[in-house]
């Protein structure tokens, strides 16, 4: 289905951000690159390999949906480059970007592209709305995908004005639009299936490969669940006091260097510092990344989840860091060490 040239271009474009990151790091070794910035393109390249393999194995009529398959495959390299530069700008260059708005635009673009090609998608084993009801008959498949086209496009168009609303309002609306774009065709397909069932239509027998695909999907789903569970409930925040700077290492997030000479104020708070996350890591164990609240504005947080005390470091550059230990006693001891090093 995919030529050798297409495969090489897809892999090269997906891994390009990792190469750029290594070059930028080598030219400026003092820059701290979080592992997530460099590892994400590699992870997406592995995802691309899996998608290419499954498409080649499962798709028999390789010319039927060639254009649609190509668009879906190229989404991964484009996503790799976009996520890398956003991560680099925020986590390495410490730039303030409207993350929610950018994500809304990306989702809108994806829905608009998919909506344009959904009605042209013919029954296949790899792309499209692949559920029992759409596979029951070619009429159901075609009718469902004809509806999915405008459903995706309308939701995609609505995401654009929604992205300019305040974040607290925009986030739930975006989630609703995402769900509606997918649920409407599914509900329609089920109704169509029941209608054909009442009419006594003979449905297409389920092929053997569906069982293998379902087993593979369950296995992949289980692996993903285990991975998510590990990410949600493990990890630590470690501090190293070097000669000129304090280094903060957060599991799954990366390292940050805080020079002692640039700290203009250090405060020990006897309670948690609240804030909403705009970019970064959030789990039941750790909170790391860019946060914001009314008091501090935008700040970088590297703490355990919901600490009962926290340290606020204000820098001469205007940046603010919020740190913590596992408990108030550990946070207080960390604060004393910081005071010793900044004099």
Helical amount = 55-70%
- Overall spatial form: elongated
SSE order in H/E notation?
A: HHHHHHHHEEEEEEEEEH
β-strand number = 9
Average pLDDT confidence is 83
What are the low-pLDDT stretches, counting only 5+ consecutive residues below 50?
A: none
The protein's oligomeric status is single chain
Q: Outline the biggest β-sheet.
A: 6 strands, mixed
Strand order of the largest sheet: 4-8-9-7-6-5
Structural class: alpha+beta
First and last CA, distance: 66 Å
Q: What is the percentage of strand-forming residues?
A: 15-25%
DSSP helical segment count: 9
Features:
9 helices, 343 residues, alpha+beta, elongated, six-stranded mixed β-sheet, three-stranded antiparallel β-sheet, single chain
Describe it for me?
- The chain has 343 residues and is an alpha+beta fold.
- Helix content is 57%, strand content 17%.
- The chain has 9 helices and 9 strands.
- Strands 4-8-9-7-6-5 form a 6-stranded mixed β-sheet, with helices on one face. It has a 3-stranded antiparallel β-sheet with strand order 1-2-3, with helices on one face.
- A hairpin with a 3-residue loop joins strand 6 and strand 7 (297-304).
- The mean pLDDT is 83.
Structure in a nutshell:
With 343 residues, this protein is of the alpha+beta class. It has helices spanning 4-27, 35-58, 66-92, 99-117, 132-136, 138-162, 167-198, 208-233, 328-342, and strands at residues 237-241, 245-250, 254-259, 263-269, 276-282, 286-293, 297-304, 310-315, 320-323.
